[in-house]
Prior knowledge:
The complex is a heterodimer.
Chain A: E1 4-7, E2 10-13, E3 19-25, E4 31-37, E5 43-51, E6 54-57, E7 64-66, E8 76-78, E9 87-94, E10 104-105, E11 109-113
Parallel strand pairs in A: 2-11
Antiparallel strand pairs in A: 1-3, 3-8, 4-5, 4-9, 5-6, 7-8, 9-10, 9-11
Chain B: E1 3-5, E2 10-14, E3 19-21, E4 24-26, E5 32-38, E6 44-50, E7 56-58, E8 64-68, E9 73-78, E10 87-97, E11 100-105, E12 109-114
Amino acid sequence: DGGITQSPKYLFRKEGQNVTLSCEQNLNHDAMYWYRQDPGQGLRLIYYSQIVNDFQKGDIAEGYSVSREKKESFPLTVTSAQKNPTAFYLCATKGAGKGRETQYFGPGTRLLVL
Amino acid sequence: AQSVTQLGSHVSVSEGALVLLRCNYSSSVPPYLFWYVQYPNQGLQLLLKYTSAATLVKGINGFEAEFKKSETSFHLTKPSAHMSDAAEYFCAVSTRDFGNEKLTFGTGTRLTIIP
Lengths: 114, 115
């Protein structure tokens, strides 16, 4: 089954804890993105990666970290420095060639603070 | 900086009526423009996109949008609303940031269909 998978669907974080959200794709896309969605604010870019072993900060990177060791995977860690982590997190990918302007989205992970 | 404005955070229409969701953008260069739909607790699904070919773009589920450069608009329409159209809709513009394309999103419009 092709596409983008995000796990878990729901994630609970205790205060002071780091948690990692998974994003995996088998579309052979080079670029991957992480967005945060809050009610009434649309989507805001956290980090993105154009190629393996390289990534850039987006508009709201503080309190987050990423890695891109494999083309298929782009995990996002929400650190204890992120004081308001409750949100819906979306991963997206973008390929090269025809349709290279289009981002495709995973099903999302909802992070809640205990 | 690029930006997207979606007029109306909530829109209600009767089943069978015209759906019109408004989107205006700012861009100093020819943009790529997108409409995405999101159902509750799901990811975003591409409805349609404008990539500098035809100005009237047809998408899935009977939606279409028209790119009007003079008005910097890309409004989404559907002639007859269906109950299954109830969802949140996002307009987005693609921008270039030091050679890397980025998407800038509007704040979304929640569409409610009245039976």
